[in-house]
Design a protein that fits this description.
Serine Threonine Protein Phosphatase 5, Tetratricopeptide repeat; 4 helices; about 100 residues; mainly alpha; about 65% helix; elongated; two-stranded antiparallel sheet
Length: about 100
């Protein structure tokens, strides 16, 4: 997982410290790990057609860090669950 240091903006792929300024990135890594956990659970729930669980897991991931990946998967979940208006709204909001 690559993290951008909030202090010096350097990209960091390894270690709990920034490679450039040595800032502690362990809390950011923990948040990203938790977000990945919820995103993975959302994908598994979608695979099993548990749409409510998938949307709940995506909400958790989005609260940790919003991103286009969450919005795209949310639009897919809504589309597959038959909620076309919400899927289109989510897609449009994610697009810009």
């Amino acid at each position: 997982m690559t993290l951008r240091c909030p202090v010096c903006r350097a990209e960091n792929a390894t270690g709990p410290q920034c490679r450039r300024c040595r800032a502690d990135l362990s809390l950011l890594a923990a948040v990203e790990s938790r977000r990945d956990f919820h995103f993975t659970r959302a994908r598994a729930a979608l695979r099993d057609r548990h749409f409510d669980i998938a949307l709940n897991e995506l909400a958790h991931a989005d609260r940790l860090r919003a991103g286009s990946d969450v919005h795209q998967l949310r639009a897919c979940v809504l589309l597959l669950s038959g909620n076309l208006p919400a899927a289109l709204g989510t897609h449009a909001a994610a697009a810009g």
